[in-house]
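Please, structure for the following, as tokens.
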Amino acid sequence: MEDRYKLTKRASIFGIVGNMFLLIIKATIGFITGSQAMIADSANSAGDIFSSLMTFIGNKISNKPRDECHNLGHGKAEYIFSLLISISMIIVSFKLLYDSICSLIFKDDFKFSWWLIVVCVITIITKLLLFIYTNSIAKKYNNLLVEANSKDHRNDCFVTTFTLIAALLRLANILWFDGVVGICISIWICITGIKIFKESYDILMDRAINEEGKNKVLDIINKYPEVKKIQHFNSTPVGYKYQISFTIYVDGNLSTFESHEIANRLEKEIDEKVEEIYLTVIHVNPI
């Protein structure tokens, strides 16, 4: 848990610093040259700073220990802040879409500069390194906050590649591609935002554990010949893990101690072997 917190914090700080640097150089060159694609790319970096900041704050809150007012901890803060990131991405995407369409309709020109090429190359390298780092953390710790940042970094690699192409096409006096790239960037940001919103919303609305996680639990239960039947299997998200509860039916001739000892062994084994599980609660009925 401590490693998850520290690495997420580090990833968010790297994201803030890296995107602030990219925002400054993109915005400067974008406004000097009048490139709509580069301006859109700089606005995307501004959104990425907000995303990294939300990751930092959300990570700090979600790792607070449980207390009297929050018996299951503060884990869902991770998804609340992921939701905020997704909403900000969608809002930014609509503004960029409007500006890019206006640029395409009114055929706004922009000046070619080799600095456009330099900024694009720097951005692609920076974002690729950030993606590799954050993606490894997101996969290792199943962290939606870091995953949202990771997808942002990955998307930016593709987006800036198209910005680079638009800048090179300016040499051939092909101007329409710049506005088209701005539109594509907007749509890409919006789609990514919607996906993150849906995933965060599902968790906040207590989406059940997936079939793979549930089957891991059932496989463990089925190893116990004393358990004759299972009913009322329920799960609820607790941060990035789940609390599960279910009823097991055992031989009615067993003593209370014996039947509850079965449940205790089951709870311990599930909590130890199934990574997705935060807490297991078992009710015992005789059959």
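The longest strand covers residues 229-238. Residues 30 and 39 are 5 Å apart (CA to CA).
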